[in-house]
Design a protein that fits this description.
416 residues, alpha/beta, Arc Repressor Mutant, subunit A, 2 domains, 3-stranded antiparallel sheet, 7 strands
Length: 416
């Protein structure tokens, strides 16, 4: 039977660089996400067709549990946090065994942190296990600390009120999916997944341990450990992230609740990117959102480029979106709630900003997060200013300095 390598929580095998992991369990979780929601595989037509066909042949319970834990909430996808700690074959069967053996407080914490949550949420095992059997208390907890829609908060509250039932369903789903779907499928996936992992390791070695630029969904990964890049054939040229974003270790060491072990010195705060093997191999043909400095390629006439940019920014609502995204990545529903707009309005504005090349997009679980690099946008605006003034690169900054000097009190006194 597989187990969790809990010694990793104490820092054993710690690496300062990104770790490439080709465990079969990553493809296993992606396959569950795909049959639960086939449109999840937007950039992998072959596997999307496979997911649609496979979903139609599942038993009612198999499909219902996949939808419940991998589409209606992200708790199933959050199981990716366990994969770097697995031993054995490290497939879905091993993941099920490890989940079954986990302390219940860790299971509840994994569920509570699967989506957006207030960093100050009380997440000690005692706090979470106090919600068992008390659905009203679990609902109050979720309403207070989770930044989610009402339906998702309600679903997570039910899970926290019955963590044993949640775990039992997830373990049953992982085992059934492994036996009936994934064990036969992996033979088709293994070779490409291994080639993708080999390519990624070579890239990272050449970069001195740093992950590829498309992995960095956040500017700074220094606060995370470990940084793991899982490889999935089914994901095609896609990319999805899981990251633990609270101020404590995601898991407690075994025996801690009984006082037999102290909290690990090295908190387990993982950043896990699952990369499609085709992307890792450099054969992606899918068009994605681009970073601000890459938008020029869309426009043959530079005047059209800058007109599109200023038109996109020339709306108060879009400027509010830009300011919100400067703080951190957000998804559409979150922006709608925070800014008091309808989801349709937010979608319209995000489309305009993306078309102008202002935004980039990244996938995390079943959501698309929109990101914006403030420094890149600032540089882009300076280039636009230089074009409008007919100046070469860098001349706009010099012109701005002259204008500032001319507007200074000393300059005005000199002109008097």
């Amino acid at each position: 039977m597989a187990s969790i390598d809990w010694s990793a929580l104490g820092g054993a095998g710690k690496s300062s660089g990104a770790i490439v992991d080709d465990a079969p369990a990553y493809d296993g979780l992606i396959s569950l996400s795909a049959v639960a929601l086939p449109r999840y595989l937007r950039g992998a037509a072959e596997w999307r067709a496979w997911a649609e066909t496979t979903a139609s042949g599942l038993s009612v319970e198999h499909w219902r549990l996949a939808r419940k834990w991998f589409a209606e909430v992200s708790i199933g996808s959050a199981l990716a946090a366990l994969i770097p700690l697995l031993t054995g074959a490290r497939d879905l069967a091993d993941l099920a065994d490890a989940l079954e053996a986990m302390p219940l407080g860790d299971v509840a914490r994994l569920a509570a942190t699967a989506d957006l949550i207030d960093p100050q949420t009380p997440l000690d095992a005692a706090d979470l296990l106090a919600l068992r059997g008390d659905l009203p208390a679990a609902r109050r907890f979720c309403d207070r600390y989770l930044r989610e829609t009402g339906r998702r908060r309600a679903a997570i509250a039910r899970a926290l009120a019955d963590p044993e039932g949640m775990r039992a369903e997830l373990v049953r789903l992982l085992r059934v999916h492994h036996e009936r779907v994934y064990s036969a499928l992996d033979a088709r996936l293994r070779e490409e997944r291994a080639r993708g992992a080999t390519a990624l390791r070579a890239q990272i070695e050449r970069a001195g341990g740093a992950p590829p630029t498309y992995i960095r969904g956040r500017d700074d990964l220094a606060g995370f450990w470990p940084v793991v890049i899982g490889v999935s054939t089914i994901l095609g040229d896609g990319l999805t992230h899981y990251y633990h974003d609270i101020d404590r270790s995601l898991f407690d060491a075994p025996g801690e609740l009984e006082g037999r072990a102290q909290r690990p010195q090295q908190p387990y705060e993982p950043f896990i990117a699952i990369v499609g093997a085709r992307r890792a191999l450099g054969v992606s043909t899918r068009r994605r959102g681009v970073a601000p400095t890459e938008g020029a390629a869309r426009f043959a006439d530079p005047a059209e480029r800058w007109a599109a940019l200023y038109t996109a920014l020339g709306d108060p609502s879009r400027l509010k979106i830009v300011r919100a995204l400067v703080e951190r990545p957000r998804y559409g529903q979150e922006l709608a709630v925070d800014l008091g707009m309808s989801t349709a309005t937010i979608s319209h504005h995000l489309g305009a900003l993306n078309k102008a090349g202002v935004l980039a997009m990244e996938r995390r679980a079943h959501r698309t997060y929109f990101t914006l690099d403030a420094r890149a946008l600032q540089a882009l605006l300076r280039q636009g200013e230089g074009f409008a003034l007919g100046l070469e690169d860098g001349a706009a900054d010099r012109a701005r300095g002259l204008a500032d000097d001319a507007a200074s009190p000393d300059a005005r006194e000199g002109m008097a």
